[in-house]
Amino acid sequence: MDPRLTKLVESLELSKVLMIKICQAFQRHLSQGLLIHKNGGIPGEDVSICSLKMLDSCITNIPSGKETGVCYGLDFGGSNFRAVKAVLCGKGRIEIFQNSASLKESFQGHCPEGLVHAEVPGTHLFDRFSLQLKDLIDHREDTPMECSMNAENNPAVVPLGFTFSFPCLQESLNAARLITWTKEIETGRATECKVEGKDVAKMLQEAFLRHSIPARVFAVINDTVGTLISCAYQKSEDDPDCLIGLILGTGSNVCYYEPMAQEFNYKGNVINLEYGSFFDPILPRNEVDIELDRSSSNPGGQSFEKLVSGRYIGELVQKYCMKLDDPAVLDLLETYILDTKDAAALATLETSNPTSSNIVNTMKRILPSSTVNILKALSLAIFNRSADLISCSLAATVLRIITYSPEISRLSIGVDGSLILKNEFYFERVTCGISSLIESAGKKCDVKLIPTDDGSGKGAALVAFVASRS
Question: GO CC terms for this protein (predicted)?
């Protein structure tokens, strides 16, 4: 291997000692965040003490997998949204029906940006949500009659969970005030009917009333919390309790079940860490990471996410490759932008196979073996670093749980997101890393990662169902 390439690859490797230190730093930030919240402060404001936001989900009850009935969810996290109907069949089985739509459809003949435009009143956005749900309720003939009518032969109020993936102040399980729009959505900003600063659950409930829709918002959640809840319901009876949720795709986040939540003045037991913002001097950020951060849309923010998430891995491979100054690599990168899917294909290439060593299918071009070897080595190193850092954060979270609940000897982590679910080598490395770090801490806990789909849809509906029965 070229000495320059060897040096770059080695700069991305995390020693066991460093991983232990990162795990300890994460535990320290987590513990400090709990104390800050207990004393009425806001975790994440002073990143030198705690860089985790540690938001209250207000969720107190986790499903068992035995619940049966019908519930609904609305999932809104960008320019598309969907309505979801979940039929809970018990024994962890869920039947899902859904419809989706784009918010970028033309609004009243103008505003080509559609309902995400600043000149569109907030009520119009929530009216659109409610009508999408109404269509699902009206056109699903499989709803059991006992769920569709009450004793007075009137439409029964259906429980609904609202996945709203924007920064909110969670005031209660069914009250969340939008702090600010993100993702280029500006609905209501140039009108008297704004959304920012308003309780989005209340706005949705008012839209249901305007359109005579028999639904009640029981919960507002984010997709990571939904992943934990969805896993808790769907896991096998033989699997341990699901106490952690992980999203790891384009972005990344973790939530967990805090055994002592009430002692730290949380209303719920599930805490949303928003750990993409985690920062500590021990993090292995080097010259390339700093360059990527400076050129990003939020310099200085989401430091951990920029090291681990799918949104940045392709860009990191590209930037590291350019450091080598290899003519063939530079020629490739002049005309081709690597993405994370490319990097995953490169990381898992069998270079002993002449066909695969010369052809990278995702790029649809023939490459010299030497170029492929460079791309493979750097892609694998960056994926491995990401997996090791994820292991540190998850091991720290597990250690928090079992330190204060020593009776817990096994637990599950519900995982969703393309980065971890579509790359088996990555999934296995994270699993092994967690076990190794827990053992190094002198603790014992069997941890199982369970692939969990659609936390934002199923999870929202489940939270609403459980809340409606509490």
Answer: cytosol; mitochondrion
Please check whether residues 110 and 196 belong to one and the same domain.
yes
Main-chain dihedrals φ then ψ at residue 265, nearest 5 degrees: 65, 30
Mean pLDDT of the chain: 89
What confidence score (pLDDT) does residue 109 get? 53
Q: What is the CATH number of the domain that holds 305?
A: 3.40.367.20
Confidence of residue 148 (pLDDT cuts 50, 70, 90): very low
Check whether residue 216 and residue 356 sit in a common domain.
Answer: no
Question: In terms of domains, do 301 and 359 share one?
Answer: yes
Of all residues in the chain, what percent carry a pLDDT higher than 70?
A: 91
Could you tell me if residue 465 is inside a domain? no
* AA letter at 245: G
Q: Is 360 left (phi over 0), alpha (psi -120 to 50) or beta?
A: beta
Residues 98 and 135 in one domain: yes
pLDDT higher than 80, residue 142: no
Please check the confidence at residue 354 and state whether its pLDDT lies above 50.
no
Give percent of the chain with pLDDT exceeding 90.
70
Whether the full predicted model's pTM is greater than 0.85, yes or no, is yes
Do residues 199 and 329 share a domain? Answer: no
What is the tally of structural domains in the chain?
A: 2
Q: pLDDT tens digits, residue range 9-37? A: 999 999 999 999 999 999 999 999 999 99
- Is 462 domain-assigned? no
Query: Rounded distance, CA 466 to CA 227, Å?
Result: 15
Task: State whether 209 and 245 are in the same domain.
Answer: no
Amino acid at 62: I
Instruction: Measure the CA–CA gap between 39 and 146, rounded to whole angstroms.
Output: 47
Token pair listed for 124: 């119009």
**Domain region containing 211:** 68-221
**59 located within any domain:** no
356 and 434 together in one domain: yes
The CATH number assigned to the domain holding 73 equals 3.30.420.40
- Taken in order 285, 291, 292, 295, the sign of the CA dihedral is positive
pLDDT for the residue numbered 351: 63
- Is 60 exceeded by the pLDDT of residue 76? yes
325: left (phi over 0), alpha (psi -120 to 50) or beta: left
Mean pLDDT computed over 431-447: 98
Distance CA 58, CA 6 (A): 49
